[in-house]
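Supplementary Methods, section 5.1.

A reviewer requested that the exact input to the structure prediction be made available. We therefore reproduce it here, unchanged from the version used in the analyses.
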Amino acid sequence: MWLIIRVLIYEAVRKDEACNKRYHYRPQIVELMLAFLCVVGLIVVYYFQFDFKIADWIYAQTDWVMKKSVIANDVLHKAAKVCLIVIYLYLLFKSVKGMRQSGNTQKGYDLAVLLMSIGLSVSIVSLLKRLLDVDCPWDLIVYGGDKPFFPLFDYNPSYLPSANCFPSSHASVGFSWIAVYFYMTVTEHPHKYKALLAALVMGLLFGVTQQLRGAHFLSHDITSLLICLITTMAVYSLAYSSRVGLIKRVSFR
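The structure derived from this sequence is encoded token-by-token as follows.
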């Protein structure tokens, strides 16, 4: 998949000098404020222990009854993820096919950067989730599990392996689509804020669903949003950093 996207970007820049007229992106106040709010949110959650307060309330009310529910587990967790993967693959196919048939390299480049941003955001969250030893709420003794709570970077080796629950990969599947907002920004689409709101709502829905199931804390979801936001800003800052195409900054040979 990554090879296809890279080749797509290479062909877009190689074939058409019109790429030199590409939109010049710089992080806007909306993205910067959203990132700032994420950082502030994490500080507030940590200071006031909202992770545990929220989890305490959910566990007291549900005893993780939604862990295996049809709506939370089968629909909003499994089926929703599959649907977004199918949409992603369709856009990838459309990008390759459209560029070959119409020769619209500018459109192909824009779509390729969008797909790269989504894929990279999800991949980074998934990688961190594998590397960091953090348990899910349902794994903790206080919530019916069999492990004590350990802070980030302070996991007791005698309790390994951990459940690897941080950050929230499912929330990132939704939040990663904020890249559509960036895509609409560089293509000057009038409904970009609607796209941003839709991605935030989708990521929030996925995140809350996982919290109700006992799979994640609130901070896990906020961290995933922050990672997706920073990753997408970095990708678009590089891809649209000047009138010189991305291929002139990164060698694909």
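Residues 11-20, 243-253 have pLDDT under 50 and may be disordered. These observations are discussed further in the main text.
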